[in-house]
């Protein structure tokens, strides 16, 4: 089997990746290369394997066949702690409703960098925590237990915790599902600013095609166990793709500011 070459700026390389659950093939011979600094959205219908793909990248799920490389090293060669120094995962319900105060939860992101005496090997950790609290406007909430926060506030704290982790790669699994439109945009803007300023690589499973189009530079479409389309939102978000992959009639129209495609859903006509 020929292995695809690993480029020097490779953040993630998936080679001939297969995943089977019991007798069900979920992902079949996936080959994906993601460069450092890309903002990639994974879209596709329910059950198409998006979360499974993220879990394969994070090591939470083992491939049935094939290989995953993170920052040019085989995933299997990382210890748990070493992997946490490179890669962070944020789920749709970021952190549970625990009673710890916000500032402590942000600090928990530093866990992979503590030595055996609990000392942080990064000298400027206090400045880092303050910067994160500033950027996410969390100072007013610093002493509040996370259990008392709203879903939107909690997701901001979850983002702060992964920012404190300072990963090279951030995996997001439908991170805006429980957020209202203001917090959806705010969350995506924060991730986007972090990605642009620090060269972070972001891979986000997204159900909202319009939000994905606004923020991702590249979209991967998962359907029938494989990537059926890979390209810029402009190339990917077409009426034809939405009908073929999601079975829905839609109209694609350019965004009035940026020109990226936005999808307007059509109702089924009466009697059809
Ligand atoms: N641990 C598991 N054991 C068995 N089957 C699983 C397991 N996890 C996922 N699957 C199956 O794999 C398929 C893909 O699931 P996955 O959650 O990856 O899809 P998805 O695209 O993220 O779906 P959704 O959009 O609904 O969140 C589904 O048919 C699911 O039932």
TrEMBL record:
InterPro entries: AAA+_ATPase, ABC_transporter-like_ATP-bd, ABC_transporter-like_CS, P-loop_NTPase. GO terms for molecular function: ATP binding. The keyword Transport applies. It comes from the Bacteria. Gene3D superfamilies: P-loop containing nucleotide triphosphate hydrolases (3.40.50.300). Keywords: ATP-binding, Nucleotide-binding, Translocase, Transport. Signal peptide: none annotated. Residues 12-249 form the ABC transporter domain. This is Iron complex transport system ATP-binding protein.
